Amino acid sequence: MGKRAAIVGFGQTKGSSSRKDVNGIEMIHEAVSAALADAELGIEDIDAVVIGNMDHFEGINYVDMWSVEGSGGVMKPIIKVTTGGTTGTTVAMCAYYHVASGLFDRVLAIGWEKNSESDTTGAIITAYDPIWERPNMAGAIGGLAVDASRYMHDHGVTERDGARVTVRDRLNALNNPYAHLRQEWMRGKDVATLVDLLVSSEENQVLAYPLRMSDLCPRTDAAAALIFASEDVAETIAPVPAWVLAVANRHNTVYYGDLDWSLNETLEAASRQAFAKVGIREPLKEIDVCELYLPYSYAGLAWIESIGFCGPGEGRRLLWDGVTDMDGEIPMNPSGGVMSSNPIGATGVIRVGEAAIQIMGKAGLRQLNRDVKIAMATGFGGCYWADVLLLGKNKPL
Amino acid sequence: MADRKTGQTELLYVTSGDMYQPYSYSLGRLGAEFLNTIKEEKRFLGARCPGCNRVYVPPRSVCGRCHMKMEELVPVSDEGEIVACAIIEFGFVDPNTGIARPVPYGTAFIRLDGADTALPHFLDSVDREKVKVGARVKAVFEETRTGKIMDIKHFALIDQYRRPGGSNGFSVE
Questions:
Q1: Which residues contact B103 (CB under 8 A, 6 or more apart)?
Q2: Are A391 and A359 in contact (CB under 8 A)?
Q3: φ, ψ at A64 (rounded to 5°)
Q4: Which residues lie across from B2 on neighbouring strands?
Q5: Residue of B82, B94, B101, B168 to mutate for A, most A C-beta atoms under 10 A
Q6: Distance CA A159, CA A154 (A)
Q7: Whole-number mean pLDDT of chain A?
Q8: Which CA distances in Å does B126 have to A199, A309, B104, B152, B157?
Q9: Are strands A48-52 and A106-114 parallel, antiparallel or unpaired?
């Protein structure tokens, strides 16, 4: 009774540091309405809802119930999913499971966050083990800084290399009307000049050495929604559905101190599983575009190595050679990525949605100038957890 | 302020107030013995997995990789090596205490000699030339100890760069 499944609709709100004009439920409603409009469906067409955020960021512990007017889930089956930074990608995977099981034909997947409603650093620390790690760790920024220290040490990477990733994503964000950080001052300047400006600017303060402000993602208020449909209805809803080719996920440990810091083992294992399912042997050549959950600059070097786009320590070469730019061999984050918007529970949904619209040909100014047959989206959460989704233009066999 | 004619209104937040909801987390037997041994003897213990032989610090009773129960505690050194580190310069409120942590401070994941996993803690230095991966550190204990991880005041950087001798040399595949 298993079914092939595809994404047939996507909607998102514009990222912002504070959406005081709406509460969370109203913001969710905006994203859901946009996704339904994109698919030309009504809420009555939806069979089930999967929703996710990080509950304790807003201090609301029953989000599936609390959000029901906004989600459109009144008198429908609803499941809430919370897996840290991966929440949005796990929401998408869970909606896919609903459809692929054959039990539901049209499933809504929603992610959202209002980071403006609490102290994100304080909230993220509560994800660490309360006895052993919480007393000493410093939220996402401190956790990512220690991650960077190890990668820079192992591979002789410099702050210019990190800044190269920031510049790519922030330049791409200028093409995305939904991006939170659209740094207009960057427009029209060449990459080397922008990297020089970032690493020499006194305003670009160090938050947690070795990380500066420009190495980190923003805190964003936004919501996003996807519509998954079974093979029985997908092609009647969308002219070009984005078919789900593979999903994979790995969790390892809750203790940061248990990690092997020399690689991102969950992302590596999940990527390998997804590539094997689709028969991808050379990801750099066979994948057309990526929307990667890169919450800070150096992840754009280290984690593309873990995925297998290049060998250990070779990430910076790919970046400096322009391989990951919009006109490169494997464009990464045409949307501007997490470095330009991070509404945590929505972030993974946006990665999947942005990958899908590249296949569907609906990406507007950020649409690639070539045929997109295979798109990859990832989620990062955790500790060091990974979700990987591969989407395709061709219906899988 | 609301102006019905133009539809303009001042946008508002309602704050939750100063909430206070303390939790009490169980350490388990091995975790308790780890902290009691620091408190009473200023010594470190790790848990050894009978399946993979990894030594876990802090100790806990289940090895996730093998999904096996661990019961054997083994001594590990109060000296070790930094495996990853940072110097925190931005101020934020510590959710455990409700108090802003004084910045800057050095923090690191430290693999004690004889252990395979790392313990996060504070360092005694914010010197960018010294707070580095591979640097050697030694635990400094509080005079008055109460059975908390903060019975270790911090780890002090020491001028000694020998490789850890007691490690099993196990690396996660």
A1: B88, B89, B90, B91
A2: yes
A3: -60, -40
A4: B9
A5: B94
A6: 14
A7: 96
A8: 21, 36, 7, 18, 10
A9: parallel
Cβ A126 vs Cβ A56: under 8 Å: yes
- For A278, the token pair is 């689709």
Nearest by CB to residue A20, choosing from B11, B64, B118, is B11
CA A166 to chain centre: 15
**Structural domain range at position A114:** 5-118+218-237
Q: What is the pTM of this model?
A: 0.95
Beta carbons of B16 and A59 less than 8 Å apart: yes
CB B115 within 8 A of CB B76: yes
Selecting from B11, B90, B96 the residue whose C-beta is nearest the C-beta of A135 gives B96
CA atoms within 13 A on the CB side of A141: 26
Task: Please give the span between the terminal C-alpha atoms of chain B, in angstroms, as a whole number.
Answer: 61
Instruction: Kindly provide the ipTM of the predicted complex, given to two decimals.
Output: 0.92
Domain parsing of chain B, residue ranges: 27-158
Asked whether the beta carbons of A219 and A115 are under 8 A apart, the reply is yes
Q: Is B158 on the interface with A (CB under 8 A)?
A: no
Count: domains in chain A: 1
A131/B118 Cβ within 8 A: no
Phi first, then psi: give them for residue B38, nearest 5 degrees: -65, -45
Torsion, Cα of A251, A255, A257, A261 (10° steps):
20
Cα A316 to Cα A325: distance, rounded to the nearest angstrom: 13
User: Hey, what are A361's tokens?
Assistant: 């040909």
Residue A58 lies in a domain: yes
Enumerate the residues of chain B whose CB falls inside 8 A of the CB of residue A149.
84-86, 132-133
Nearest CA in chain B to A146: B85
| Min distance B112 CA to chain A CA atoms (Å) | 11
Residues in chain B: 173
A86, A94 contact by CB (below 8 A) = no
| Interface touch A137/B120, C-beta < 8 Å | yes
Q: Which amino acid is at A351?
A: R
> Does residue A54 sit within a domain?
yes
Check residue B165 and give its pLDDT.
43
Three-state DSSP state, B88? strand
For residues B112 and B80, what is the distance between their CA atoms, to the nearest angstrom? 4
Looking up residue A11, the CATH number of its domain turns out to be 3.40.47.10
Task: Give the residue from chain A lying closest to B154, CA to CA.
Answer: A136
Q: Which residue of A has its CA nearest to B108?
A: A146
Our CA-based measurement puts residue B126 at a distance from the nearest CA of chain A, in whole angstroms, of: 10
Question: In whole angstroms, what is the distance from residue A62 CA to residue A55 CA?
Answer: 8
One-letter amino acid at B95 equals P
Instruction: Answer yes or no: is A131 within a domain.
Output: no
* % of chain A at pLDDT higher than 90: 88
> A248-279: b or e for each residue (b if 16 or more CB lie within 10 Å)?
bbbbbbbbbbbbbbbbbbbbbbbbbebbeebe
Q: What is the pLDDT of residues B78-119, one digit of tens each?
A: 999 999 999 999 988 877 777 888 899 999 999 999 999 999
Chains A & B: contacts with CB separation below 8 Å: 125
Q: Tokens 């859901």, residue? A: A32
DSSP 8-state assignment for residue B52: T
- Distance of residue A262 Cα from the nearest chain B Cα, in angstroms: 10
Residue A256 included in any domain? no
